[in-house]
Write a structure and sequence with these properties.
alpha+beta; Uridine Diphospho-n-acetylenolpyruvylglucosamine Reductase, domain 3
Amino acid sequence: MNCIQRALRALTADGLIRSGSTVVAAVSGGSDSMALAEILSELTGMLHFSLVIAHFNHGIRPRAARDAALVERYCTRRNLPLVLGTGDVPAESKRRRKGLEETARSLRYGFLEKAATEWHADAVALGHTRDDQVETIFHHIIRGAGWRGVTGIPVRRGIFIRPILDCTRAELKLFLRQHHISYAVDESNRDNTILRNRIRNRLLPNLRKSFNPSIDDAIIRLGENLSEGWEVLEHSVKRYLPPLEDNGSVRIEFERLNTLSDFQLYLLVDLILRERFHIMQDVEKVHFDAAKRLIRVGRSGGRVQLPQGITICKDQRGIVISPTGRMKRDRQRRYEPVLLPGPGRFSLAAWDLNVEIREIDMGPPAPDPARDEAYLAAVKFPIRVRSRLPGDKMVPFGMRGRKKLSDIYIDKKVPVHSRDRIPVFEDANGILWIPGVVTDERTRILPHTRRITHIRISP
């Protein structure tokens, strides 16, 4: 099975791309991303989707301009639209007091999310390969990761998809040679002061030669087996995940905590940090152990400080996990936007909501919607979910002129402290629906309407 067939299998089996959608491919100019671009380009006709290429210049590599030119030439030959982005990663790294790699990733992903929004894309394709999967798992093992860390890279996370995760780097380079496609070589890959490069250039070749020629297959199987087990375990604990309260904190009562084993307790705290506060790193075992001690044997009034401005406080009824300082101000100001590419079920973690979207044929008159659902016409995917922004306007259902969202909240007597917590659903043409508050007039179902979109939210 060649690379195109493997990518096609991933895209169809996992439902990564739907017919009629737009996909943004992240292309740095390296072999993996150039192969991703060519593979997706060849599959556009078969799967009926549009492709947009996105290239981000981090401002780090001396030959960055040549890489951008290489990608631009490729897009010209293939008649593909190209989105270019730039960022001064070294300067931003100093400003944020974060490492270069972490800052570069943050800026790159932000650029890709913006490109997806501007092009109304359903997905952003990344060029991670089978080799990246093996190296990532080893990287996590060496750094002392827990169970989840050894599950590796997921094929999908939010709008980000990885169609060539089952292809090796060598296979992709052969594919490029066969198709006479040039690619850039990243000189930094030879720098063995970087842990990931030492894994790639020293550890894995030695393991293949001296221990197991099929070590890559063994590691992939390990990751897949652990991933299946992790999904089952995480699902069993998610029912204990508490909602985010209006003040931005999370409360868990002892009645619930006392039913959990120590490992389930660790998993619940980890889920809260990830899904309620979007903290994906910096929290280590020593922090979880401190939280466990506080919960199990700590006194009422005790507290534990976690990284990134999170505090766990214990009182007579349970514990409260809350952001402090700058993080609290940032959370009260806005929630990160989420792109919903089309029909399906999604999690809006920041709002503590699930959302289900269906497209249905227009039959009998649509029923009067409840506060947690809407029947809408003329929806253009993707749908973007965000918090309110200054200057937001829309045409309330049954009216003619546009009205400020702030005035609508006043008219509807929506409490001030709740307004930032209410999700705003919009498409390329503006706001569609604000649950429990208002629907836009342009979504009205008319006699000639044939297809409608049904959106339902739930805790």
